[in-house]
Write a structure and sequence with these properties.
The chain has helices at about 5-15, 30-45, 50-55, 60-75, 80-94. With about 90 residues, the chain is mainly α.
Length: about 90
């Protein structure tokens, strides 16, 4: 069973950043991308409600919705992002 904490750990490890940094207000590209990836995967794999994901990351459900949409729109265009999602999902499904 994939849960929020497992997703956070895996995404942090994949992007080589401290998991705690994702819970900050940082807008640095690599951190916000990782944070959006956590939101996207928490919705997709852990089937968490947007509000619950937002609460864990101190964001609104609208921010989570935006993040999920953003990743979904970028996936068909960005090969690297597809690879990232596949690798992180693969690691989580082990």
């Amino acid at each position: 069973q994939v849960n929020f904490d497992a997703i956070t750990q895996e995404v942090a490890a994949y992007y080589n950043i401290d998991p705690d940094v994702m819970f900050t207000k940082s807008r640095k590209r690599e951190i916000s991308d990782a944070r959006q990836m956590v939101m996207y995967l928490a919705k997709k794999l852990a089937k968490m409600p947007l509000k619950a994901i937002g609460t864990r990351l101190s964001r609104t459900h609208a921010t989570v919705l935006y993040a999920c949409k953003n990743i979904e729109e970028r996936l068909p265009i960005e090969k690297q992002l597809q690879e990232d999602v596949n690798k992180i999902e693969g690691a989580l499904m082990r």
